[in-house]
Design brief:
By secondary structure, the chain is an alpha+beta fold. Helices cover 29% and strands 48% of the residues.
């Protein structure tokens, strides 16, 4: 009888093996996730982001409502997305195809295209620019924003950065 109990004590089955493997995998994934999160958070850098918005086919009232120095906020969340640093305006132009395949340019004197340059503090990772840490921005995307005079739908034309710490040392 002693021999049988001694044998059963040292018995190792396949279920025990799988349980040990699963425990090791869980522990490794926790350590891997923490390691990746620390790498990503150290790769994130605070920076000043400058981006350009394009508004098309707007009337004179909208042009007068958007000025240098205005603060912009997201329409959906009311989060600030920067201050306007420059505004340029030109007459709106459209191109239409004529029957023979050529393009005809038409200028609309009562409507305008606006380029709006905005600066905002944010962060930058390899994947994206984030305004105020919570809104990702990229060229080509649409933004719904407003100032204290009007709200508008616009397209992001470009996004650039310049390090805040670099300019503070100079």
């Amino acid at each position: 009888m002693n021999q049988e109990t001694e044998k059963s004590r040292h018995h190792f089955n396949i279920v025990d093996f799988f349980v040990i493997i699963i425990i090791i995998a869980v522990v490794c994934s926790v350590f891997a996730r923490e390691g990746i999160n620390s790498i990503v958070s150290t790769a994130k850098t605070d920076t000043e982001i400058e981006y350009t918005l394009r508004l098309e086919y707007v009337n004179e009232n909208v042009v007068k409502s958007i000025n240098t120095g205005d603060s912009l906020k997201l329409t959906s969340t009311n989060d600030p997305v920067g201050k306007i640093t420059a505004v340029s305006t030109e007459n709106y132009e459209a191109y239409t195809a004529i029957g023979n395949g050529t393009m005809k340019k038409t200028v609309f004197p009562d409507y305008y295209t606006m380029l709006i340059t905005v600066k905002c503090e944010g962060s930058n990772t390899e994947e994206s620019f984030n305004l105020n840490g919570n809104f990702s921005i990229a060229a080509g995307m649409e933004m719904y924003v407003y100032n204290d005079k009007c709200s508008f739908n616009t397209r992001v034309m470009s996004v650039n950065e310049s390090g805040i710490s670099d300019t503070a040392d100079e």
